[in-house]
Amino acid sequence: MLYSSGGYLLTGDYKPVWERTPQGGFALASMGAFLVLESREHAQKRSASPIARLAAVVAERAKRAPGDVTAALETMWDKLSAQGSIKAGQAAVISGATGAEPATAEERAFLAKHADLPVRATGTHIGHGLEPQFSMNIALAAIAAKHGKLFAPADGSGFEKAMTGPLRQAVVTGVGHWRGEGLALVEAVN
After folding, report:
1. Cα–Cα distances in Å, from 177 out to 79, 93, 107?
2. In the prediction, which pLDDT does 45 show?
3. Which residues are CB-contacts of 34 (< 8 A; sequence separation ≥ 6)?
4. Model confidence over 29-43: pLDDT tens digits?
5. Is 108 helix (H, G, I), strand (E, B) or coil?
């Protein structure tokens, strides 16, 4: 009821995240994610095989005036790039875009500036789970990096493009429907 009264929920027919403009909205989901974060040494001591490496995480909190999401994403992208090299041809973006506007439009415009990286909006497949979304997307990025393959595009807008090379890195975006922005860099382990 809270999200509906705020105008954040998807209304009308279902559409993939990138096709929900101009009214926008998210498909509310129930989810959870269990991540084990430990040093390589600790994992080796217990004979665990790593799935992927969380190379970097950065966060911001945009006020949500027009352009604030874009500014936060640009600041975080610069910080993330400074912590680890994002390799075009081997990297993709796992987006936590909600479909709610105007945040989704700003994220899409920002990601269009990085057109060398294929994008996938997980909200199209599993909905938007609010706080667990970012952790869930890190888990999905880790699994995709482990298998070296990005899952198929799922929108008819043409924004999501096929990935031809092996997936070695994934940039995970988290842009909430109201506030709370984050980026993470997940990498395959050798």
Report:
1. 23, 18, 11
2. 94
3. 139
4. 988 877 888 888 898
5. helix
> SS3 helix, strand, coil % of the chain, rounded to 5?
30, 20, 50
Q: CA-CA distance, 57 to 35, in Å (whole number)?
A: 14
| Domain boundaries 2-187, CATH class | alpha beta
List the structure tokens of 48. Answer: 């665990």
The DSSP annotation for 72-93 comes to: HHHHHHHHHHHHS---TTTEEE
Is residue 104 within 8 A of residue 176, CB to CB? The reply is no
Question: Domain map of the chain by residue range?
Answer: 2-187
What is the pTM for the complete model shown? 0.91
What is the spatial order of strands in the sheet that 53-60 belongs to? 53-60, 181-187, 169-175, 91-95, 119-121
d(CA 53, CA 12): 40
Closest to 173 (Cα-Cα) out of 129, 126, 84, 107: 107
- Which tokens belong to 114? 């990085």
